[in-house]
Write a structure and sequence with these properties.
Elements lengths: L2 H5 L10 E10 L5 E9 L8 E6 L14 E2 L2 H6 L2 E3 L1
Antiparallel strand pairs: 1-2, 1-5, 2-3, 3-4
Length: 85
């Protein structure tokens, strides 16, 4: 399944309501790809269609994440080089 199909089908997300993303275009000084987490917000089941993104978040360390969640259009994420990890 490609990134847009996966993003638009939250019922397929292995860790719903979260989906890890990566960006090969953005790298840190060590050469590591940028990472982030997309979450579906708004309802208690996977079909709300309301998405928020946290750049720099790690799916396995969300309790430690100190950044913000920003409402986002999935098409904007993809246009900026983000893809499902």
């Amino acid at each position: 399944m490609n990134s847009i199909a996966m993003i638009l089908n939250p019922n397929q997300w292995p860790q719903w309501p979260y989906l890890p993303l990566k960006n090969r275009r953005i790298r840190d000084a060590s050469g590591h790809m940028a990472q982030g987490v997309l979450r579906e917000a708004g309802l208690l089941e996977p079909r709300a269609g309301i998405f928020e993104f946290a750049e720099g978040a790690n799916l396995f360390a969300l309790d430690e994440f100190q950044g913000t969640w920003t409402p986002i259009d999935p098409a904007e994420l993809l246009a900026n080089g983000w893809e499902v990890d």
